[in-house]
Request: fold
Amino acid sequence: MPSVVLSQLPLPRQNFGRRTGNIPLGAACLKQAAQDLPGAEVRILPQDLAAYLGDAALTEHLIGFKSGIYGFTVFSWNLQRSLYVAEKLKTACDCRIIFGGPEITPDNDLAHSEFVDFYAYGEGEAVFRRLLQDADAWSAGSGAESSAEWFRTAESPYLSGMIDPAIENLMLLETQRGCPYRCGFCFYNKSRQGLVFAEANNLLRALAWAAEHRIAEVYLLDPSLNARPRLGELLAEIARRNTGGGIRLFSEIRAEAVDDELADRLAAAGFYWFEIGLQSTNPKALKLMNRPTHLRCFVEGAQRLKARGVTPSIDLIIGLPGDDLQGFRRSVDFVVDHGLQDDVQIFPLSILPGTDFRRRHRELGLLFENHPPYAVTSSRGFSPEDFLQAYDYAESRLDTVFFPLPDLDVSWRVDAAGEVDEADDLRVAIGGRRYVAKLLLNRERPLDQIRRLAGQLTQPYQLLVGAGVGAAYLKSVLAIVTAENPFTPLEIVFFEPSAPPRTRELLAAVHLQRPHYLDGDLRFLFAKPGNRAALFTLVSVEPAGRFQGDMERQVFWWRRPSLPEIEDLRKFEDLDGILIDAPVPTAQILAWQNRLGRQAAERHHISFADARLQRRWLVLASPDEYVETVMRWEA
Reply:
């Protein structure tokens, strides 16, 4: 029986060290399902490697397993990158490739590839076992099989060590499969016929394990927790075991189902947050998406949760068939007018493979991008400009920003004092090996050296460019590193250039996959179409803005003899951030961070020249957003 390596590639991020949420639960379930098969050797690509390695380093690591089978859990955000890695594996070694996950549906032509040997539709445990035991089963090329009985009786794979929650300090707990609802935009209810529920005793053992291992949060993956039979009994038992709220629980629920008794039980069990899909208040849109909603009951249920300290996070969708700009604005007003604006998520409609909206998109008048995330670009009720106006209105009424610029991190120094021109590459240790997260171009280094380093880059990575580096040389470097890492986001940081960089010319040298997933996911970050996977940052002591186009930002280089106060920072609000590089003792900077940290971070993008002080700042300013152990910088 050949060895197997299972991988799940993350949502691309533009800040190194940021949590990705890329927890390979599906892979762990497959490994657990195969553990009783004689000779089965199933390994899972560790989460830190999957999350933080660039394309070249990731591919090299996977090839190094010399496995006979490679499996990929595929979502919209990693489909194209998974196909790219599959091609590299097929070219380098004699292996078979299997794809499964939500993105793998019979109607998704984008997933079809000569480099993939088998597509598993829906839940995968039974199909996976069959492929490992029967070599002839591969010839079908695709298949589906119910894993209901296995799921109902299986313990969480965390208990047998199949998956490690350490990086995120978060446990994913699957308590049901299937969904009782048939919403037109959602694939979840198409992945299996009917509902199946995990046995309550196994869920309770999983929560006990989480408490024993001091896991901070547990996410119950139910699409609607209220669909579970005898939910009240289960919640009462969880409350008995989770006294003091040592474990914070969160999940999804239909607000209309929340009466006073259920709200009391949820709060007592330790739930602190629920995602609640309102999507729209427009009756026509609700009907077309097959999502009947009693709005008064919705409000009452959400307010019951809020009254007990449980945050109702309300989802709204822009671009639904049957809706228009005025209808969307009314939905936003509805949320605000009923005091539910504390946590609102707004998504442009995606026409996902396998959904009713994908099947009926012509009938419904939906135009959408034919690449992930399949965002609707216009409909009978929404013009392309209406999407921008919808977000502008939502940001104004909800007093928030839905597409902020990436966090600022233009650090280069590790401990010792020194200028950019004297610095070395900054590396991090992942999986026992050192990788380059910040590549220093403070001189024109040999291109052979750049080619070697291109295979050691993280995801994402930065090129830190000194004043003496010419544009022609930089284009050569960009061509090399992006050709080796075509799906890996990057940032090019210029320190005091003599003239603003010609970003259009530089982008012409970039070999990133286009369209990149981020091109669609962040298409509202700027008004004009552009490349969202490459960010340009200019650092200068010049306070006047001169570099603020699409995916461009300018940062003031604070090199004054003392640290700024809040009133000093306000003078640079027209710029995109401040790099603090004052010649003061480290202890003084630490005290400044402690004193002004949260207040300063709320209004300003701030970076520090010292990378270790910067790591501390990111964790302080954005708690729970970064994996501090990954950002252990080495020169």
The chain has a mean pLDDT of 93. The longest strand covers residues 271-279.
